[in-house]
Amino acid sequence: MENKEQENFPLDSVDSVVIRFSPEEEKECYINLRSQVIKLLYMIESEERGEGDIDLWFYGFMYELASSNTLCNNKLTKVVVKIHGLYDNKHYKEMTHAQIKRQIMESRGILTHLIGDEK
Question: Does residue 16 fall inside a structural domain?
Fold first, then answer.
């Protein structure tokens, strides 16, 4: 049998599939992230009291936040930057509670604005 020319394409030559959330999916994502941002504050406070280590949870949250930013057309970039500032090299452990709370509450405010239910 004679081999026909195969249509093999290198992976880098094929356009990747771009997945984006619909406006409804974005809103649901923002609502979920807003609650997780507040959970982050409680978890940091708990860790400060010696009640556990949040490293693994925080890593997962950063992964979810970065992925959500991509799926939401990069509308979460400011939140990613603020939370990553806490996460990077466990910088939150060197910050005052007021500094941590300010970054988290500003992130919450951004998410509330994106959700569109500001009072």
Answer: no
